[in-house]
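[RESIDUES AND BACKBONE]
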Amino acid sequence: MSTDLQSGKVLRIHEIVNRGSSLDGQAVRTIGKLVQYNAATSTAVLSTNDGTKLTISTRLLDPFPYHLHSLIQVIGEVELSAPGKELFIVPRVARCVDGLDLRLYDEALGIWRQFLEQQGQAQEQDELPSDIFDM
């Protein structure tokens, strides 16, 4: 097993869900609103305003100190519960980012991706409506 940690590709929840199993084992970083937490199963659900949801495993973060409806940023690896089954993230790092201006964050992410594209280092990207992060 390698001890090298990937930095985490910055993706929106929508992009992670759409790419599905192609991200299995890859490190990602994303932001979403905490809409559900289950201490018994060590799982939580992050969501965007359009209803796109992503499950995270909190087993590496327990005790899980975040409150419902907080804006959470996670960095971790994408896993599948079984082939063709639910996709989830096992975050190794999480932080509360309440107060983050999500419109500005999304705009900066777009500019950053344009820069990388110009440099020939583009990540795949999905087109999203500009209000995807209104919460």
Summary: The CA atoms of residues 114 and 120 lie 10 Å apart. The mean pLDDT is 85. The chain has two helices and six strands. The longest strand covers residues 27-38.
